[in-house]
Amino acid sequence: MADAPRARKLAKRISQIVASALEHEVKDPRLARVTITDAKVTADLHDATVYYTVLGDKLDTQPDHAGAAAALESARGVLRTMVGQGTGVRFTPTLTFVADTIPDDARHIDDLLARARAADAEVAAKASGAVYAGEADPYRAPKEDEDDED
After folding, report:
1. How far is CA 61 from CA 22, 53, 128, in A?
2. pTM of the predicted structure, to 2 decimals
3. DSSP 64-90
4. How far apart, in whole angstroms, are the C-alpha atoms of residue 63 and residue 111?
């Protein structure tokens, strides 16, 4: 069984090899906008999960997730061969491609933070014109003893 640092090092190397292969070796146009974000390898070094994101052609167009997933599945064998040649391990790990949800989660968190800022601004706007219901200082001040020294 391999130790965790070796698995992390192999995962990093696999992500580098797959990213380089997608950029230079694999000629599928559906993979032009695919970015490899992370890779994880099991402790026995037999299975690797590669995480990827897909960008759209323009900012306002939706990316083709289904096409990218199909292209990665068709290129799996070529990519595994390149990983085997580039890593030099005894058993080349099987590759599994998973769409990375971190950008969507980050976008959702940004939306939630924007809504919270808007709610805070609304509360601050309501509080700016508010007046006290009673006195400004609701606590009673202690009576001062007057000394009668004549």
Report:
1. 22, 15, 42
2. 0.70
3. -HHHHHHHHHHTHHHHHHHHHHHH--S
4. 20
